[in-house]
């Protein structure tokens, strides 16, 4: 029988060159972790004897022997692991056999056989990687407990407020952080801000308004997804920067509906205040009063103003004013607002009535009906109400020794003038009086006057009156003598008439309407001169006179006329020249009749106007 003696010709070897062990970081010191055993095909003392590990402070090696003599190693944890400090530990694990310990293989030294020389010790190694498994032993941590952010108001939704970042050194779900609002956040802040759970992005989700709140506190928590997660907290202090987004506001507390036009300068008519919800210059307000008005602003306290009269008021120039106040802040760009009030100016009786003209010329046709309307005077008063309520009257005066009130009257309400009598142009051609308009103002009524000139207009109501030649004493026709030897153009007489009317109504025309046989006579229609047109016929019976009907007609509409009969008696006698002229056949051809009864009467003085009643006057 031959025994084959083992020699240490095989080193120990591990199943894998790389061994990996996973250990929770929560493992406590003293915990053992079995390792993969190495294999050595040698036997006896050449077989596997020990395990060694790279010296370190975390682990030690404990080699155990099984009942069959095989040895195995256990890794013993010497101190706590911290994955966050070191997630992987790498060591060299060495398996050592028993070579080099002297003696041969099994049975060496027995049976007379000679022993083997000592064998060299052999080792085998493997890379031991210890992976520290995470346990949720870390709380997420923010970079800082309080963040301060400034953000303009009116920032649109979606505007980034801040990118929050909380870190958790754990791994996996233990280190996966989610963000949320904590229970400390106010409901309003929750409405205005949005938070991304995964990214920690805090953004605007509502409408920020500095005037609502200049500061918002946003409380955020972060926690991992591991078991028994503990949240971490931070506070985001959002300071809202004011923007000039609010126009000033004007509030009137007192407004007088009316102010007297007699109010002294400085009289208060309104009180108002201004506010602006913005801050600093955006909230500083300046006020002005628009327009050219007799009012001004007066500042009493900060942002409190009064509107006062600046100059005396005149209701007649303006009975109401629209006062517009403009309030403008000092922002960029500036915002403004305006507000208007209506102020009425109450009347004071400071204006006397005024007639439409200072003098009225009123034309009234004579023979008017008593009580007839003749004119209407009109006055105005720039005041109002009772101060402008007018009453008309006529001021007392005398006309031809009688009171004016017997001639005319006036309606006190409307200024209508009425004639109280029938006027006669031939008796009264014109007269004047004064009318007054008086208001009903108080405490002192005011009055104004005007002059009324009544001009009587002539009416053709008088027929011409023939005043020469004169009729006989008993109303017999006037008589004139004509020499039979009178030459053509001989002036027999001059008919004279008067008319009490005026103008065309008194312009007279003379004519022969009957008795002018053979047109022996001619009459100047303007002067009334009656002359011979030819010689008296020789066969004319001298005892038979001419009876001429003379008519005097005016130019009125319609015309009036009067007639008179003139008896012309033929006589024999010498013809004497007139006015120093030549004889019957010389000079101008004008001849003067001889005097009646041997020269007892003289020629008629035509400048003497006698107004007489002629029995033969008729009206056509």
Automatic annotation (TrEMBL):
<feature type="domain" description="Cadherin">
    <location>
        <begin position="356"/>
        <end position="466"/>
    </location>
</feature>
<keyword id="KW-0677">Repeat</keyword>
<dbReference type="InterPro" id="IPR002126">
    <property type="entry name" value="Cadherin-like_dom"/>
</dbReference>
<feature type="domain" description="Cadherin">
    <location>
        <begin position="251"/>
        <end position="355"/>
    </location>
</feature>
<keyword id="KW-0106">Calcium</keyword>
<keyword id="KW-0472">Membrane</keyword>
<keyword id="KW-0812">Transmembrane</keyword>
<dbReference type="GO" id="GO:0005886">
    <property type="term" value="C:plasma membrane"/>
</dbReference>
<dbReference type="InterPro" id="IPR020894">
    <property type="entry name" value="Cadherin_CS"/>
</dbReference>
<dbReference type="Pfam" id="PF00028">
    <property type="entry name" value="Cadherin"/>
</dbReference>
<dbReference type="GO" id="GO:0005509">
    <property type="term" value="F:calcium ion binding"/>
</dbReference>
<keyword id="KW-1133">Transmembrane helix</keyword>
<dbReference type="GO" id="GO:0007156">
    <property type="term" value="P:homophilic cell adhesion via plasma membrane adhesion molecules"/>
</dbReference>
<dbReference type="InterPro" id="IPR050174">
    <property type="entry name" value="Protocadherin/Cadherin-CA"/>
</dbReference>
<dbReference type="InterPro" id="IPR015919">
    <property type="entry name" value="Cadherin-like_sf"/>
</dbReference>
<feature type="region of interest" description="Disordered">
    <location>
        <begin position="574"/>
        <end position="601"/>
    </location>
</feature>
<feature type="domain" description="Cadherin">
    <location>
        <begin position="15"/>
        <end position="142"/>
    </location>
</feature>
<keyword id="KW-0325">Glycoprotein</keyword>
<feature type="domain" description="Cadherin">
    <location>
        <begin position="143"/>
        <end position="250"/>
    </location>
</feature>
<feature type="compositionally biased region" description="Gly residues">
    <location>
        <begin position="97"/>
        <end position="116"/>
    </location>
</feature>
<feature type="domain" description="Cadherin">
    <location>
        <begin position="482"/>
        <end position="572"/>
    </location>
</feature>
<protein>
    <submittedName>
        <fullName>Protocadherin-10</fullName>
    </submittedName>
</protein>
<feature type="compositionally biased region" description="Gly residues">
    <location>
        <begin position="578"/>
        <end position="589"/>
    </location>
</feature>
<feature type="region of interest" description="Disordered">
    <location>
        <begin position="97"/>
        <end position="120"/>
    </location>
</feature>
<keyword id="KW-0130">Cell adhesion</keyword>
């Amino acid at each position: 029988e031959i025994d084959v003696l083992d020699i240490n010709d095989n080193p120990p070897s591990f199943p894998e060159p790389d061994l990996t062990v996973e250990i929770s970081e929560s493992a406590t010191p003293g915990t053992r972790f079995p390792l993969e055993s190495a294999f050595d095909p040698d036997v006896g003392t050449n077989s596997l004897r020990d395990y060694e590990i790279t010296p370190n402070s975390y682990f030690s090696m404990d080699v155990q022997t099984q009942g069959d003599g095989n040895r195995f190693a256990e890794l013993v944890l010497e101190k706590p692991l911290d994955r966050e400090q070191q997630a992987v530990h790498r060591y060299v694990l060495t398996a050592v056999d028993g070579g080099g310990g002297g003696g041969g293989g099994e049975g060496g030294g027995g049976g007379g056989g000679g022993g083997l020389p000592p064998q060299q010790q052999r080792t085998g190694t493997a890379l031991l990687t210890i992976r520290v498994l995470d346990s949720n032993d870390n709380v997420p941590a923010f970079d800082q407990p309080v963040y301060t952010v400034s953000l303009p108001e009116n920032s649109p939704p979606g505007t980034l407020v801040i990118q929050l970042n909380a870190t958790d050194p754990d791994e996996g779900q233990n280190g996966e952080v989610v963000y949320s609002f904590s229970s400390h956040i106010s409901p309003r802040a929750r409405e205005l801000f949005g938070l991304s759970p995964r990214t920690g992005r805090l953004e605007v989700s509502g409408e920020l308004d500095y005037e609502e709140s200049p500061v918002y506190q946003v409380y955020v928590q972060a926690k991992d997804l591991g078991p028994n997660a503990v949240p971490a907290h931070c506070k985001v202090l959002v300071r809202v920067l004011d923007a000039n987004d609010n126009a000033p506001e004007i509030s009137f507390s007192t407004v007088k509906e009316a102010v007297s036009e007699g109010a002294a300068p400085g009289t208060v008519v309104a009180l108002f205040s201004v506010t602006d919800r913005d801050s600093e210059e955006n909230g500083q307000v300046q006020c002005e009063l628009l327009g050219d008005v007799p009012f001004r602003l007066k500042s009493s306290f900060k942002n409190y103003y009064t509107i006062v009269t600046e100059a005396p008021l005149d209701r007649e120039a303006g009975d109401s004013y629209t006062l517009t106040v403009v309030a403008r802040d000092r922002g960029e760009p500036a915002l403004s607002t305006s507000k208007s009030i209506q102020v009425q100016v109450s009347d004071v009786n400071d204006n006397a009535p005024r007639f439409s003209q200072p003098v009225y010329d009123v034309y009234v046709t004579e023979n008017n009906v008593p009580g007839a309307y003749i004119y209407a005077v009109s006055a105005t008063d720039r005041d109002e109400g009772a101060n402008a309520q007018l009453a008309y009257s006529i001021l007392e005066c005398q006309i031809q020794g009688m009171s004016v009130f017997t001639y005319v009257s006036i309606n006190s309400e409307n200024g209508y003038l009425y004639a109280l009598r029938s006027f006669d142009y031939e008796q009264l051609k014109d007269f004047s009086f004064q009318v007054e308009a008086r208001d009903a103002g108080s405490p002192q009524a005011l009055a104004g006057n005007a002059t009324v000139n009544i001009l009587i207009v002539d009416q053709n109501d008088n027929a011409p009156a023939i005043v020469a030649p004169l009729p006989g004493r008993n109303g017999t026709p006037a008589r004139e003598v004509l020499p039979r030897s009178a030459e053509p153009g001989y002036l027999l007489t001059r008919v004279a008439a008067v008319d009490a009317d005026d103008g065309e109504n008194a312009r007279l025309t003379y004519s022969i309407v009957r008795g002018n046989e053979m047109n022996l006579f001619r009459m100047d229609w303007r002067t009334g001169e009656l002359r011979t047109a030819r010689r008296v016929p020789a066969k004319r019976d001298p005892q038979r006179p001419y009876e001429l009907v003379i008519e005097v007609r005016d130019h009125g509409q319609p015309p009036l006329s009067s007639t008179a009969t003139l008896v012309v008696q033929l006589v024999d006698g010498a013809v004497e020249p007139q006015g120093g002229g030549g004889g019957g056949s010389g000079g101008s051809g004008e001849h003067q009749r001889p005097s009646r009864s041997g020269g007892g009467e003289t020629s008629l003085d035509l400048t003497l106007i006698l107004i007489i009643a002629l029995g033969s006057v008729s009206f056509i």
